[in-house]
Amino acid sequence: MTFIQVAVPVPLRQLFTYQHTRSLNSGVRVEVPFGPRTLVGVVVGTQDPADIDNIDKIKPLNRVIDNEPVIAPVLLKMAHWLWQYYHHAPGEVMHAMLPVPLRKGEAATPSAQRYLQLSDEGRQTDSDTLTRAPKQHACFMALKHGQLLAVEARKQYSPSAVKSLLQKALIEEVDQVPEFTPFGYLAQMQIGQTPVPDKEQAVAIAALNQQHNKFVISLLEGVTGSGKTEVYLQAIAPLLEAKQQVLILVPEIGLTPQTVARFEKRFSIPVGVLHSQLTDAARLLVWQRARAGELGIVIGTRSAIFTPFKHLGMIIVDEEHDESFKQQDGLRYHARDLAAMRAKEHRIPLLLGSATPALESLNNALTGRYTHLQLTRRAGGAQSTQQHLLDARDQPFHYGITEGLLTIMRQHVNAGNQVLVFVNRRGFAPAMLCHHCGETVMCKRCDKPYTVHKAQNRLQCHHCAGTRAMPRQCEACHSHELVTAGTGTEQVEQGLARLFPDAKQVRIDSDTVRGKDKLHNTLDAINRQEYQILVGTQILSKGHHFPHVTLVAVLDCDGALFSADFRAAEKLAQLVTQLAGRAGRASKPGEMWLQTHNPHHPLLQDLVNNGYSHFARHALLERKAAALPPFISQIIIRAEATDSALAFGFLQQCKTQLLMPIDNIEGPSVGGPFPCLMEKRQGRYRFMLVCNHAKRGPLHATLRRALPYMQALPEGAKVRWSVDIDPTDF
Ligand code: ADP
Ligand code: ZN
Ligand code: ZN
């Protein structure tokens, strides 16, 4: 009899022991009884019978699912690191690493899938016959390049388009077990046209060429449009030629078909794409193809860091500063940190790229822990965007825009160029209040003002997504005079339509671009110059290329100057710099104007006059002086409950545990319980403890010792609480 340790998917920070007739490889899935349920767990080791109490109570496992481990040894090491470092339940970590069908116990080896392909008739048919049905046409054209998974095709081109094509007998369905061959064996890889790198690019590429099969982390700090992607392309070419695979992580919204097309076009090898909109079956297929070595490149968002590979040669994290790399619930991991951990296990290089590096990464580059590669000029002779502050004090405003800014906008529109207007919130206005008594209409679940959405004629809470009908009168004094305060994208769009009746405009925020295709279609239309004015939120700052935009106007950045979050300045500087990077990318020079009531604010002055790289180095000095991350380690314990005293009291008891001295270890400082920045959300009051320590080791040791006591607190069952290691927001 062997005693097997299993990571079972339950929210408990421990492993469970089962008995079996023989030993099993770590990484193999097993079905186990757990109370009244049957769960799919992952084997992580065996246990010495001498270490087991109540040995006759140990249950046998129900069934062994896999012959071969589904989690390879390097990934098991990563799993182990994850549950140790993030103090998370091992079974939940394992599940997070696996595609959904495998969590449910389905076979890991490819099973028959339904594919679509052209029929004999389809192959002889001219696609022009379908031009009146654009979706059928697009699907048909895609199938000319090869088979598609039937579920994917239905999702992408609509079920009715597929149905029509089947009825016309232009396409057919086939069931096949996919066979995978490692890339580069059946067909030789061809490298497409490659521009001559400029001096700085050449230096970076040469440095990266020295790193093959070694664990080295590099930061490529390159201004927007300096040719970072071109460096990635040229740096990975020799690795792909050596049949090594490359993983590229990109931000949530940065994964555009253009990015993927650029890699596909350069290298004639299969490229896999992973993002949140894929079906479970499609994700599993990418997982299998990468594992078998068929995919040369996998491009994906945060969770793509868990993809198995046959022979991984390099990891790239593009726009490494982006907040979407940090998971903000459940297993709160940072994909950039995981990438470093993974590169170390594989003994391969990790390349981080950004125009606005996170202060954490920049500090590692400046202190020599990372290789620092810099691109200081835009590629292909494009000029950098001139940045200016616009003093909004005492100026007349129209829909949130000063007269001065309107004049500048007119010049650009009249010159036939495009103008990008950044507004930091969506909706019509961030608040509605009573003109008579001043009462604001509040979301009672979050204690925050509702945002006015005129288009839907409703109020919406941006914190809990709750909505309500537009009120007719004030709840306090019954006055009918309700007015809006502040400006959101919807209002700016309406205002600009009146101010620029001849310019066509488009609004881009999460209300107007639901679904990724909508966004891509809008971006294409912008680049065809169908619009002259673009109004939008954050979405506009993410890596898109707008060759005809020559002016970027930022309507309000004052809020971020006075935030209680010490990262607000860094985030604002990244946003502003990324926005500036959208303008003047082609032959046309660009400018950016920041409208502010604080034109002499040192942060804005530094950013506008000296640029992000100067700002960031200065900000690091400030963080050091204030003993803030990255110069110290931080852990936040959050708790929320409908009864605020419960959440507060629970954290107070946790604090007592965290402050309990441990031999030979200097304890952390524990601040709080403080209310979170969002004090109330969805009817729950939220508090946090902030634990700081100059060193990571003692901080984690303290938490490790305190956690079992915290878990045993009876109040813990009545509140929702969580541990956030290296938090990035409050
Ligand atoms: P980034 O990733 O830094 O935004 P890209 O790699 O997308 O920059 O480059 C910006 C533009 O400059 C692209 O159109 C790219 O094709 C072009 N480019 C990059 N490197 C060169 C080069 N060495 N010579 C000519 N054009 C280049
Ligand atoms: Zn009132
Ligand atoms: Zn709310």
| CATH second-level architecture of the largest domain | 3-Layer(aba) Sandwich
Total helical elements:
21
Strand elements, count: 34
What is the radius of gyration?
Answer: 28 Å
Structural notes for this entry:
By secondary structure, the chain is of the alpha/beta class. The protein folds into five domains: 2-104, PriA, 3(prime) DNA-binding domain (GIY-YIG endonuclease); 113-176; 185-375, Rossmann fold; 386-428 and 485-623, Rossmann fold (3-Layer(aba) Sandwich), CATH 3.40.50.300; 633-725, 2-Layer Sandwich (Alpha-Beta Plaits). Helices cover 32% and strands 24% of the residues. The chain has 21 helices and 34 strands. It has a seven-stranded parallel beta sheet, sandwiched between helices. Strands 16-30-29-19-28-27 form a six-stranded parallel beta sheet, with helices on both faces. α16 links the parallel β27 (505-508) and β28 (533-536). α5 (134-144) packs across α7 and α8 runs parallel beside α9 (228-241). The longest helix is centred in the last third of the chain and has 24 residues, at 602-625. The radius of gyration is 28 Å and the shape is globular. It starts with a strand and ends in a 5-residue tail after the last strand. One zinc ion is lined by residues 434, 436-437, 439, 474, 476-477, 479.
Task: List the SSEs and their pairings.
Blueprint: E1 2-7, E2 16-20, E3 29-34, E4 37-46, E5 63-64, H1 73-85, H2 90-97, H3 100-103, E6 113-118, H4 120-123, H5 134-144, E7 148-149, H6 150-157, H7 159-167, E8 171-176, H8 199-209, E9 217-222, H9 228-241, E10 245-249, H10 257-266, E11 271-274, H11 280-291, E12 297-300, E13 312-318, H12 335-346, E14 350-354, H13 359-366, E15 371-375, E16 386-391, E17 397-398, E18 401-402, H14 403-414, E19 418-422, E20 431-434, E21 442-443, E22 448-449, E23 451-453, E24 458-460, E25 467-469, E26 482-485, H15 489-499, E27 505-508, H16 516-527, E28 533-536, E29 549-554, H17 558-561, H18 568-580, E30 591-596, H19 602-625, E31 633-641, H20 644-658, E32 669-681, E33 684-693, H21 696-712, E34 720-725
Parallel strand pairs: 9-14, 9-15, 10-12, 10-13, 11-12, 13-14, 16-30, 19-28, 19-29, 27-28, 29-30
Antiparallel strand pairs: 1-2, 1-4, 3-4, 3-5, 6-7, 6-8, 17-18, 20-26, 21-22, 23-24, 24-25, 31-33, 31-34, 32-33
Helix pairs in contact: 1-2, 1-12, 5-7, 6-7, 8-9, 18-19, 20-21
Bound molecules: adenosine-5'-diphosphate (ADP) and zinc ion (2 copies).
